[in-house]
Amino acid sequence: MTVLRNSLRSFLSHKGRMLLSAIAVLLSVAFVCGTLVFTDTMNATFDKLFASTSADVTVSPKEKEGAEGTEGAGQSGTGKPATLPAEALAKTARADGVRSADGVVTSSSVTVVNDANENMGSTTGAPTIAGNWNDHERAYMEITSGHAPRGPTEIMVDADTAEKHHLRLGDELRTIAATGERTAKISGIAAFEVTNPGAAVVYFDTGTAQEFLLGDTGAYTGIAVAADSNVTHELLKRNVQRALGGPDAFTYETQEETAASSADDMGSFLDVMKYAMLGFAGIALLVGVFLIVNTFSMLVAQRTREIGLMRALGSSRKQVNRSVLVEALLLGVIGSVLGVGAGVGLAVGLMELMGGMGMELNTSELTVKFTTPVIGLLLGILVTVLAAYLPARRAGKISPMAALRDAGTPADGRASVLRGVLGVLLAGAGATALVLAARVDEASEGALFLGLGVLLSLVGFVVVGPLLAGVLVRGLSLIVLRLFGPVGRLAERNALRNPRRTGATGAALMIGLALVACLSVVGSSMVASATEELDKSVGADFIVESNSGQLITPDAAERMRDIPELAHLTDYRVVPAEVRTAEGERTGAKDLIAASPTYAEDLRVETVAGELADAYDRDSMSVDQAFARKHDLGVGDTLSVGFEKGETARLTVRAITSSDGTVDRGAFYTSTATAQKYLPQGELPLNLIMFGSAKDGQEDAAYAALKEAMEPYPQYQVRDQADFKQNLRDQVGQMLNMVYGLLALAIVVAILGVVNTLALSIVERTREIGLMRAIGLSRRQLRRMVRLESVVIALFGALLGLGLGMGWGATAQRLLALEGLTVLEIPWSTISLVFAGSALVGLVAALVPAFRAGRMNVLRAIATE
Fold it and tell me: For the ABC3 transporter permease C-terminal domain, which residue ranges apply (predicted)?
C-alpha cells in the first residue's frame, strides 16, 4: 500500500507533465479502437445486407472455370450478364419444397443519368444496379411512394439515390446499357429495410428488364427460390438440383452460402483497409513509446535525490522499481480508457468520411464488440508499462548516496559505448540488406530484403541516435543557431546536454518523416516512370475510357466514329481465351487484346522479334517475350487459341514483344477481325478503352468534338496525353495524401514528444534558468533559446528521417524497376518543404514551454533544488 500511495502522490504531483504522454496513449489507442469499430460496423452492415437480400436458394449460371474477365464487364466482356433459360424457372417452381421461385434479372454494367446528364451512381464506390421488380425484391424493399414499374416507360429508384439527387415521381431517368439506352419516368421510390451502403438501384418490370438488359425475353440472370415451411435450405438446394438436371448444370447456393461468398468478396477489401490502418496505428504507438520512455527517464532523473532518500529510509530496489511502474500503469489506464471512448468517435468520423466518398454507413448500426475495448485497454496499458520499464529499472539502481548529490544521474559511459556499437552494427546490417534488395533479379525476393533492411536500419538509427545527435546537432548549429549569437550557443549546449534524450526525441519524429520521404520518392518515381513510358510508347492523341472500368457501349463508340476530325479511332477489346502450344500443352487462360491495326501506331511497343503490325494480319497474333522463352516460341510458330464462347483457332505468332515497359506489359495482341471470325454473333467484347488520333492540324477541333460527342455519357472521360498524365499524377497524389494523413497521427505524437521533452527539461533546469535570468538574460532571449533548442531537435529528427526514407524509397524504386518503372526521381521540393516544415514544427512545439520558462519568478527559480 505504501508503494501505491507514493505512486499516486507522485503521479498527481506530476499530472501536468504526464498529460502529453497520456494524450499520446489516447491517440494511439483511439486509432486502434476506431479502426476496429469502423471495420466491424462495415462488416455488420454488409452481413445484414447480404443476409436480407439472399434468397433461401439461389440458382445462377455456371461460371467457366479458370476464365479471366474484366470487372463489371459482364459475360465475356459483352456488357451483358450471363443468363440461364426461362425453362429453368418453370422446372424450379415445380421442385419439391419450393414455395415460390422468382426469375431475377440484374446487371451492374449500366449507367443511370438524370435530365441534367448527372450520373446517379458513384464513380468510385458502390455500383449502379438495374434489375426487375419481383416478389423476392419485396422481401427487403418497401415502396414508399408511387408504384412499381408497369411498362417500358416507367422506372423505380431506391430512396437513398432519390434523396441524394433530389429525384421525384415523374422525373425522367436515362439508363445506358450495352444493349442501348432507355428513357423512363420515375413511377415509384422504394426503400431498403436494411442499410444500403451506397449502391444506386433502379427497377424495370420483368419484360422490359429482360429485353433491355439481356436482349433476350426468354432468359434470366438467376432464380430466387423460397422454401416451404419445415424445409431446410440444404434440402431445398438438393431438390432444385435434382429438378434442373444435377449439380453441374448451374450454380446453386443456399442463403448462408450466398451471404458468405458475398461477404468474402467484400471482406478482402475491408481486411486490406483494416490492417493498413492498424499498421499506421502501430507506427503511432511506436512513436508514443519514445515519448513515454523520455517522460519517465526525465522524471526519474529529476527525482534522483528523492529516490535516494527513499532508499536511505529503507525502500528496496523492487519497491522503487514498482513505484515507477505503478505510475506508468495509472498513465496507461487513464490514456487507454479515454482512447477507447475517442476511438468510437473516430469511427463515427470515418463513417461520415466514407459517406462523402459514396459508401453510406448508418451510425445507428455502430458495432462495438466486447473485444474492441479489451484490445484497446490491454494494448495501451502494456505499451505504457513496457516503455516505462527501463526508466523504472534505472530508478531501482539509484543508491542512497544519491540523496547527497544534485538532481540528475550521471551517464553510464560503458552503456553508451555498447549502445553505439550495437546501433552501428544494426544500421550496417540494414544498409547491407537494402543493397542486396536493390541488386536482386526477382521482385518477391527483393521485397524480403527490403523489409529486413527497413526494419534493421530503423532500429539501428534509433539505437545509434544519441551518438549521431552529438555530430548532427553541432553541424546544424553551425548553420542555424550560430546566427543568434550567445543565445544560439546556449540552445546548442542544451540540445547536446543529454544526447540520449535528444536522440530519443528526434527518433520519434524520424520514424514518421522517414515513411513520408520513402513514399514521396516511390510516388514521384512511379509518376516519372509512367510519364516517360507514355511519352515513349503512346502515339495516340486521345484516350477514352471509364475511371470505374465500365465498357464503352456501341452507341458511344459509334458517336466517336462519326467525328470527321479524327484520322483514325482504335478499338481495344479484352477477349478471354485459352492458349495451347502446337503440341497441345496448356498454358492457361489468357486475355488477348483484340485491337484495330492502327493500335500499332497508337502504342509503340518494342519487339524482340518480328513486327507488331504483322500481328494484326489475318489469323495472326503476338506473344510476350517471357511467354515465348518459357514455351520456346519463335516468329512463325503456331498456337491453338480457344476463344471463350467461340471456336478454337490456330494463330501464327508474327511478333514477340519486349517484357520491358509498363504499358500493356505481357499483353498478347491480335486483330479485332480475327477475334470476330471465331466468336459467334454478338459475343465480341465491347471496347474497354479507345484511342484516337487527329488529322494534321485539327488536334484542338478533334479534342473538342470528342468531348462534345461523349457529353451524353458522363461515365466516360476523354483525355489527351497531357490530361492523362495529370490524371496519373492526381491519382498518385490522392493516394499519397491519404497515407500522409494517416502518418500525421504519428507525427502529431512525435510533436507532443518534443513539447514534453522541452517542458520537462525546463523544469529540470529551473535553477539554472533562474541564475541566467539573474545575470542578465532577458525573457525574450530565454524564450528564443528554448525555441531554438526545439528547432534544432526537430531538424535533427527530420535530417535522420528524410535521409533514411530516401534510402528506403530509392531501394523500393529498384524493385519497381523490375516491373518496368525504371525512373528514380527524388522529389526535392517535397523533401525541402518537409525539412522546412520540421523547423516550423519545432517552433510551434516550443511555444508553451518557452512561454512558461519566460514567466518563471527569478528568486523562486534560484531557490529551487
Answer: 280-400, 742-857
